[in-house]
Amino acid sequence: MDYYRRGNIEVWDFVRDQNLNFHLGNAVKYICRAGYKHSKTEDLEKAIHYLQNELHHEENILIKSGEGIPIQIQSKQLPDQRQAYLSEESDRRGI
Fold first, then answer.
1. Quick one: which of 82, 13, 23 has its CA closest to 51?
2. Cβ 23 vs Cβ 29: under 8 Å
3. pLDDT 10s digits, 66-77
4. Are residues 85 and 93 in contact, defined by beta-carbon separation less than 8 angstroms?
5. Rounded to an integer, what distance in angstroms lies between the CA atom of residue 95 and that of residue 93?
6. Which of 18, 27, 30, 34 has the CB geometry, 3.0–4.6 Å to 50, for a possible disulfide?
7. What confidence tens digit (pLDDT) does each residue in 21-35 have?
8. What span, in angstroms and rounded, lies between the C-alpha atoms of 15 and 47?
């Protein structure tokens, strides 16, 4: 497939060499083939899709670790969440 063999290194060899994960590897693949297989716009949109997916994944990791949520928001949201949980428990127990 000539659209992956431009330059000195094949795309999959570059992806492996850089230890890129699935989403980043696909983004590189679509960037490299942009305009050589399908429409350039279509390939760039696919690359953006994979980059957005990777970005959302990284943001979720930060949120789960507590690093992705500002402290002011954390302190405001936690009491509401606890209150909602306590209300649900009270409703279940008939309290």
1. 23
2. no
3. 776 655 554 445
4. no
5. 5
6. 27
7. 999 999 999 999 998
8. 14
